[in-house]
Amino acid sequence: MLVSMGIKEIAEHAGVSSTTVSLALNGRKGVSDATRLRIAEIAEKLDYRVPSERANLTTKLGTIVFAKIRRHGLILNQDQHSFILDYIEGINKGIRNTGYSFEISTQRIQSITEFVQNINYHQPKGLIVLGTELTGDDIISLKKISVPYVVIDTYFEHIAADYVDMANVAALHEIIGHLAVTRHREIGMVTCSIKSGNVIMREKGFKLALEHYGMDSGPHSLIEVQPGFDGAYAVMSRFLNNNGKLPMALFCYNDIAAFGVIKALKEHHVLVPKDISVIGFDDLPMSSMMDARLTSYRIPNREIGSLAVSTILKRISSKAEHSPTGMLVSGKLVSRDSVIKRM
């Protein structure tokens, strides 16, 4: 089902009820000033218009859909709201003033076939797919879609498709390079048991970077955890309870995992960064509020969203056959307190 951006979407990103959003946007009592301000900021980013304003808009060219597909919800959960909101902001900015409308389709599916059939039935002008939880076989199944589409937030180098994603391998080279410069000679990676496209590429980048800097990438360099905060915390706690040997530094496949790992380390009296350095990935807002403040790799999500729109507009306007194109966008390492130089 295709859903226009509205109160439900704003409520999801603000972490409040739809009723609270309605009260805030209509100037009613019962909402704190701080919550009202946060809701207003999100509504502005999403280009939300009250119904009377929306009715005056005319869309001549059709609709471009952003599809948030949840296969299992273990990766796309409430912890990732700010991350996805940045994608939406970039997409919305790119579509604005083009003559197309922008809709969001949020779907929990068992089979990718259901999603493909739904899109082919509704026939939007273009489709941007959030591929975070999609498998390689899912990406292959998307080829049955009859409208132009591009996939973001995943990349499978052996499957041809239009992608816009983060440059994971280059990111890991920068991360391991930073740890090498700060004299960390033993580095481990906390990785995810669910092998999304991004996790696969980060593992590949980790191994290539270790090899480049002359470090060992033996069987114990990867610590596999369940997705999410609780999964990382539980596995790291068991690892420490079993007297697992910690390296000098840990790279965590995303910030949420890093938060869970750090909690387990603290409970076992392992201090960050005194005893071990930790680096995350995504640079979520909470990263700068951790104790110690988390060094993390920042992804230009808004730029990825804008580039996805550019790709879709080009595909819509061109009637000719095209070769699938993969665009990988580099971010930057944000250095904070969780990494120190070793002796």
Secondary structure topology:
Layout: E1 3-4, H1 7-14, H2 18-25, H3 33-45, H4 51-54, E2 63-70, H5 81-95, E3 101-108, H6 112-122, E4 126-130, H7 136-141, E5 149-152, E6 163-166, H8 168-181, E7 187-192, H9 197-212, E8 222-225, H10 228-241, E9 249-252, H11 255-267, E10 277-282, E11 295-298, H12 301-317, E12 326-329, E13 332-334
Helix pairs in contact: 1-2, 1-3, 5-12, 8-9, 10-11
Polypeptide structure, described:
The protein has 343 residues and is α/β, with parallel strands linked by helices. Among the domains are: 1-57, 434 Repressor (Amino-terminal Domain); 168-299, 3-Layer(aba) Sandwich (Rossmann fold). The protein has helices at residues 7-14, 18-25, 33-45, 51-54, 81-95, 112-122, 136-141, 168-181, 197-212, 228-241, 255-267, 301-317, and strands at 3-4, 63-70, 101-108, 126-130, 149-152, 163-166, 187-192, 222-225, 249-252, 277-282, 295-298, 326-329, 332-334. The strands form 2 sheets. It has a 7-stranded mixed beta sheet with strand order 1-3-2-4-5-6-12, with helices on one face. Strands 8-7-9-10-11-13 form a 6-stranded mixed beta sheet, with helices on both faces. Helix 1 packs across helix 3 (33-45). The termini are far apart. The model is unreliable at 52-56 (pLDDT under 50).
